[in-house]
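To close the chapter, one final illustration. This time we ask the reader to focus less on the individual chains and more on the assembly as a whole: which components sit near each other, and how the overall shape emerges from the parts.
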Amino acid sequence: MTRTLYDKLVDNHKVCDLPDGDMLIYVDFHIMNEYTSPQAFSGLASKGLKVWRPEAHLSVVDHVNATRSVEAPDAQSKLLIDNLEKNCTKHQIAFYGLGDPRQGIEHVIVPEQGLVVPGMLIACGDSHTTTYGAFGALGFGIGTSEVEHVLATQTLRYKRMKTMRVTVEGTTAPGVTAKDIIMKVVQVVGAGGANGFAVEFAGSAIVGLDMAGRMTVCNMAVELGARAALIAADEITEAALKGYPHSGQFAFRGESWVSDPRAIFDEEFTISGADIEPLITWGTSPDQSVPITSNVPSALDYVSPKAKAALERALQYMGLSEGQSAQSIKIDTAFIGSCTNSRIEDLREAAKILEGRQVAEGVEAIVVPGSAMTRLKAESEGLRAIFETAGFQWRPEAGCSMCLAMNDDIAMDGERVASSTNRNFEGRQGRGARTHLMSPAMVAAAAVCGHLADIRDFK
Amino acid sequence: MKDKGMMKTIKGIAAPLPLANIDTDVIMPKRFLITITREGLADGTFADLRFDAAGQKRPGFILNKTPWTQATILVVGDNFGCGSSREHAVWGMRQLPIDACIGTGFAGIFYDNARKNGLALPIVSPEVRDSLLQFSNNPSGAEISINLERRMITAGEISAPFEMDDATRTALIRGRDDTLDSLDYTSVIRHFEAGLNERMRVSVIK
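The assembled structure is written out below.
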């Protein structure tokens, strides 16, 4: 029988079937952060349980920490950070805290440490754990009760999902990045269009991406509702496994981590790579996007009263008018960072736009490298100098920062942000803050122009 | 004791919340997440919809209006609970208290978090959801009844089946603790682990 990559990964990790229709699956590696794990540890304590296999977990501080310095932004955040360290010490779990040269955003540091290889199953109390699908590994986000479950049993209760394949075929035009590819997929499949599905990305436009691009694609697959995202492991994946602290220590190669040639998916989508343009979101859901050369939709573009009402609400929150051209949208802030787009490759792309140019007057521009290692690499390549000369603030400490604004990097009510992040929800970057998602190079372009702009106009 | 008692039927006043894509940032804004406990989240739940910047109740929001101040069930738009994995969203809803959300589909992590905390998420067709939205919009305060055993919703004249996978339904009815239940399989997990070769055992450098 032919099987998809997803089915192979699930079969390979199945411990047993449970009487109620769930199964237990084995978690090879589990990552924790300071904000979704505290109640899991207290759950263990109240039930008198121990951690099943302490060496299979990694904890990292990334969500609440400041990016200007290693000091916690406030006492309550410090409590979360200290609490995680205390729990890790107690249970003998690896802890990469503030000031540790390995610290950074969880989904940025795991590949940097060589902790993800094809065939692995990875869980983490963070929805963007789908990122690891870029390596042909099954990664997915879990809630805090499930964090407790993994800690106590090294397994999760699991229900096999349906499978979807999204094929992006053909060559993308210059200026079109992995971010634009996944934003296009979210636009086509819809936010929630892949609820209940594990999504495999395939096609020449996907295979042609480097690992950073593949991670961006799998990272944002959760914005279409996918609980897991996958890209078949190939020689690009293989090459990306070498040279890191844990490289060569693990191998999950009982079989090849690709779907069988004639494997059947429950749903299929095909997108032409040539049709993708650099995109920006105009609304408050990641599927509300248009090409940068286009306009914000108007009520005439929609048929149902529900869709018209949704448009009206989104435009009111965003402070935009129907039919307004995308490039007329002026910004207050430019933010480059997050688990979606803060890797060295992202910083290089943005720096290409910024070299020899200046951030527009009145725009606050911030770049938060995804990890301490990324920052050092960028500094050694001269990227810091380019960003700072252009007028960007180069933040010395890595973290999620303004992607979700749990620390002190918060956008104000009404502030408009061009952002390389993953969610443009109401209030995401601050109460009343207005987010436009786009690629990091497009954020740099917007910072220079003071309004959303097309990177293809930058020669 | 693992079972907290049987919950077979959920009954209550329902409030319509028809917006699509209500995400967990909206359900529980980040400023309420800086905590190490599960408690004290009721006020944070839907905070920016319920309260203005000065902390005053927004009179137009459904849960601030009679009879929906008493609502324990929500009828929601598509893709409710999308976004962040934060279980705080479900903890807060339970503390409000909300016992069930009826919708056409929920984001996966939210769905699993709900099951762990006794929040029922019956899935119905768009037509049934729309008629329940209409039913719950009536200020008479009529109740909706969700029968978990029969997987049926009744609301006035409306009687409709809903979807809910067996494991979730069992978990809700029994109110069980999954962690303790799964530890009954300790020897099976040990056996699985024994079959892994050395290079399939992750050991993180401290």
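Strands of chain B lie at 9-17, 73-76, 100-102, 143-147, 152-155, 158-161. The first strand of chain B starts at residue 9 and ends at 17. With these observations in hand, you are ready for the problems at the end of the chapter.
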